[in-house]
């Protein structure tokens, strides 16, 4: 069951006085109480002291805020959960809301002072921005766009593993888009750097917000053209062509990496393409 039907993001940060729902956050973890992460404000008054509140948007028409606690009290029944541990444990809509909450909170806390003059910054009333009270500099939430690409060669797909991946786990290639670079240029550069291959027939398939810490993943499919695999030292521990009939351990359902693989498998089978994960 979905936790709610519709989430509409807010266009400003300042919280409202009207009654709504809240998520409670402290030291990069969300509070769960009675099995729920979306809580009534009345429930949370004994969780700890409020540091700041941020408007997130509206959940089924009700205002939804983040309450950042400056400290926590020992409240029975409250458990704390990092966002990564909630992957696959909550529905996509709630995960997306919590991802937004975590990104906005990190951005807000990182912009209390102006990067130009050092003056104090405050949320603007009319838009989701922090503004310097001295020099009027404005800062907006930042996204880091990344490409993520599934490379195929007939019934083979290219999967690689980074040194920090769990044992036996392989994924698609990904990389951050540099200033001045298009997504397509980034894709060609990253593929060349990470595995020394040339690709073409680029097709953009879909995107996913990935809040670790603030990425927007742009998912592509590309076809192999030429080259022998040479893993980039320090970045890629292993990279191989895998038969679609004998794949290694893949990223979990709900990730865009897994979705890119599933899309190709569906295409080979003549099956409908699965919907892009939220
Ligand atoms: Zn300033």
Automatic annotation (TrEMBL):
GO BP annotations listed: NAD+ catabolic process; NADP+ catabolic process
Binding site for substrate: 84, 127, 140, 208-215
SUPFAM superfamilies for the chain: Nudix
Binding annotation for a divalent metal cation 3: 190, 194, 235
UniProt-listed CDD domains: NUDIX_NADH_pyrophosphatase_Nudt13
Gene3D superfamilies assigned to the protein according to its UniProt record, in alphabetical order: 3.90.79.20, Nucleoside Triphosphate Pyrophosphohydrolase
Enzyme class: hydrolase
Family note: Belongs to the Nudix hydrolase family. NudC subfamily.
Subunit structure: Homodimer.
Protein name: NAD-capped RNA hydrolase NudC
Native source organism of the sequence: Pseudomonas abyssi
Gene: nudC
């Amino acid at each position: 069951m979905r936790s709610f039907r519709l989430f509409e993001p807010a266009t400003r940060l300042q919280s409202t006085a009207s009654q709504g729902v809240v998520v409670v956050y402290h030291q990069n973890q969300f509070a769960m109480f009675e099995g729920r992460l979306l809580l009534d404000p009345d429930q949370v008054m004994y969780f700890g002291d409020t540091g700041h509140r941020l408007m997130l948007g509206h959940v089924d028409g009700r205002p939804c805020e983040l309450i950042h606690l400056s400290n926590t009290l020992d409240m029975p029944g409250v458990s704390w959960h990092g966002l990564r541990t909630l992957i696959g444990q909550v529905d996509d809509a709630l995960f997306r809301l919590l991802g937004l909450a975590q990104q906005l909170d990190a951005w807000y806390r990182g912009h209390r002072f102006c990067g130009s003059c050092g003056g104090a910054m405050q949320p603007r009333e009319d838009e989701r921005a922090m503004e310097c009270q001295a020099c009027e500099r404005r800062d907006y939430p930042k996204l880091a766009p990344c490409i993520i690409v599934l490379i195929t060669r007939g019934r083979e797909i290219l999967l690689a593993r980074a040194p920090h991946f769990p044992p036996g786990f392989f994924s698609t290639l990904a990389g951050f888009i540099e200033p001045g670079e298009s997504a397509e240029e980034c894709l060609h550069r990253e593929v060349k750097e990470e595995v020394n291959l040339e690709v073409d027939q680029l097709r953009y398939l879909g995107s996913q917000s990935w809040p670790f810490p603030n990425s927007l993943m742009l998912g592509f499919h590309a076809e192999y053209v030429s080259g022998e695999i040479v893993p980039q030292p320090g970045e890629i521990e292993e990279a191989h062509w895998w038969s679609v009939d004998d794949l290694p351990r893949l990223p979990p359902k709900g990730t865009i990496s897994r979705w890119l693989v599933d899309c190709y498998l569906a295409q080979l089978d003549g099956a409908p393409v699965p919907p892009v994960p939220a």
